[in-house]
Amino acid sequence: MEGAKAECVEGDGKEKPDESEVVHLRRTIGLLPATSFIFGTVVGSGIFIAPKGVLMNSGSVGVSLLVWALCGVLSTFGALCYAELGTTFKKSGGHYTYLLETLGPLPAFLRLWAEFIFIRPAVASYVSLAFGRYVVEPIFAPCPAPAVLVAMVSILGVTFVVAVNCWSVTLASRTQVTLTIIKTFALILIIIPGIRALAQGQTEHFQGAFDSETLDLTKLPLAFYSGLYAYGGWFYLNYVTEEVINPNRNIPLAIILSMVTVTLCYVLVNVAYYTVMSADDLLMSDAVALTFANRALKGMSSLIPILVAASCLGALNGGFFGVPRMLFVGAREGHWPALFSMIHIRRQTPLPAVLLLYPMVVVMLGRGDIYQLINFASFSRWLFIAMATLGMLIHRYRFPQYPRPFKVPWVIAVIFTVVCFFIVGLSLYSDPWNTGGSCVLTLSGVPVYYLTVKHQYLPPRLRRAFNYISRQLQILLEVARQEVSTY
């Protein structure tokens, strides 16, 4: 991979242009886009799909509401830890950068490997499947929607988001703000009728809310996975640190504003669901928000699928905006093919990193089952998040004088790290097939690291072929490396 770095096409030796014309990622994300970026990425398909997974694995209405609240608190703790990491280390790249700076190159490379091979494809797949389901199912209701059509619409949604993020950073940012406004309206549309019905005394579905007979402690980690999936996205702003205006101020502020709002909205939405629907009704529904709308919003029920589909697009857009920056930084550090560290010479977007994720997502769509995809991706994702916050604590201990513009209380960091490791460990027992497969795929990156990055054991013929393909793709995509440092 480092060999490819040396072989890629360089400039033509002309005099360096002024700062406004050079190829680099620019700081264009202010407080409002940053807050919209987090809120809009967190509030995706999760709140409209995960309630079924949380209830299915928690066993009762009361425990499921408790799981939702605790997931919000835990996610906020994690977000605060990442606010410290994002203001301590000024590079983009999120998890990868923090693992590299605190625990070393191997954990950082494994994070890149897992992200590209299955985490991002799985995450994008279940969000896009939710998008496809909410677009198609209302057309065929009450009959089941054809799975092939759902998959085709899902691919169209992914294609649209990839095209936007390849075209323009500004367009992607404005798209995120617009979709965030739409999904906020969708949440309000669910919360208000639910709370109104609750105020009118419709509380029968909360009777026996904490039924201990249906509680299975071994499945609780999977309930947390579903809930944490719905809150997932609080770390996406850390992927684009180098593009945030005044990151020392805007990263912590955007994280705090967005996470408090999301947690409050999620708990209220679930209360609204259970006010209108029984636990059995929710478990039988594949599109919870649509079932809710058919009962509580009869005059506007046709609007809900459109709003939810837009919400899913917002989550997809946030993912494809943020994650390619991690691959971009990894390639810049020599841990990933150099092509991924290049930017389109006119559009100033990390086009190769965005574009080359696309086929992996399409392939993963073939798995099809949303809840299996959640468990499959969540094990490695939360393992590396726990490792990143553990690395933060180790870095604090080893370098106490290192400047930290924002510092989270150590109690919060310790609680978050311990809980994450506990959930990850117990999930191997709860769902050994999916979480075990995720673990094996993650560890498969170890020999790849030693063969391609650490020792360069690739045969010369294979290396030359790889370099040739990289050069041709660079010319075809019209991309080049950054010409100035952005950190």
Percent of sequence in beta strands: under 5%
* Class by SSE composition: mainly alpha
Task: Report mean pLDDT, rounded to a whole number.
Answer: 82
Low-confidence stretches: 1-17
- Quick one: biggest sheet? 2 strands, antiparallel
Give the strand line-up of the largest sheet.
1-2
Number of strands: 2
How is this structure best described in words?
- The chain has 487 residues and is mainly alpha-helical.
- Helix content is 71%, strand content 1%.
- The chain has a two-stranded antiparallel ribbon.
- Helix 6 crosses helix 15 (358-364).
- The chain is globular, with a radius of gyration of 22 Å.
- 53% of the residues are buried.
- Mean pLDDT is 82; it is low at 1-17.
Topology:
Blueprint: H1 2-7, H2 31-42, H3 46-58, H4 61-88, H5 95-102, H6 105-140, H7 147-167, H8 169-199, H9 220-231, H10 247-276, H11 279-284, H12 288-296, H13 303-332, E1 342-344, H14 351-355, H15 358-364, H16 370-398, H17 410-430, H18 432-443, H19 445-454, H20 460-477, E2 479-481
Antiparallel strand pairs: 1-2
Helix pairs in contact: 2-8, 2-10, 2-13, 3-4, 3-9, 4-9, 4-10, 4-17, 5-6, 5-16, 6-7, 6-13, 6-15, 6-16, 6-18, 7-8, 7-13, 8-10, 8-13, 9-16, 9-17, 16-17, 16-18, 17-18
Highlighted features:
single chain, mainly alpha, two-stranded antiparallel sheet, 20 helices, 2 strands, globular
Write a short abstract of this structure.
By secondary structure, the protein is an all-alpha fold. The chain contains 20 helices and two strands. Helix 2 (about 30-40) packs across helix 13 (about 305-330) and helix 6 (about 105-140) packs antiparallel against helix 13.
